[in-house]
Amino acid sequence: MSTQEIYNYRRVDDRVITGGHPDAQQLRDAAHERFGAVINLAPVDHRSVADEEALVQSLGMEYHYIPVDWQAPTIADFEAFERVMQPLETERVLIHCAANFRVTAFYSLYALKHLGWTSAEAESFRASIWDGSDYPVWQEFIHAVEQTLT
Fold this sequence. Notes:
Layout: E1 10-11, E2 16-19, H1 24-32, E3 37-40, H2 52-58, E4 62-65, H3 75-85, E5 93-96, H4 101-114, H5 119-130, H6 136-149
Parallel strand pairs: 2-5, 3-4, 3-5
Antiparallel strand pairs: 1-2
């Protein structure tokens, strides 16, 4: 097995991968692949690994939990994500949520603000997961964060 088997896996670059909920073995694979941190944006649900934080830490990785309400993402959630991401700029990071929707939204906005991505690059990254979806709350959230970037 490998991290590439995580649901809706996306490789951003050699340092960052994103996906839906990893299972316990996929978290072990992340440690084996020398990831240094895991960021979880999904509230705990039936798909979550029991005590993910303890497992991740036992594997020698940092664990960061920012539960983003699917029905009400906030700019404060994005700011919390920024605070976690910035010190990890040299670490290999696995960022996940339930299905990689929250993550692709947050990471694309982060990359737009901090990594020099263009709007087209950010949109393309989101589209790899979001194409065909219609979530007005998230469209409003993405637009609101983009407005803070200009």
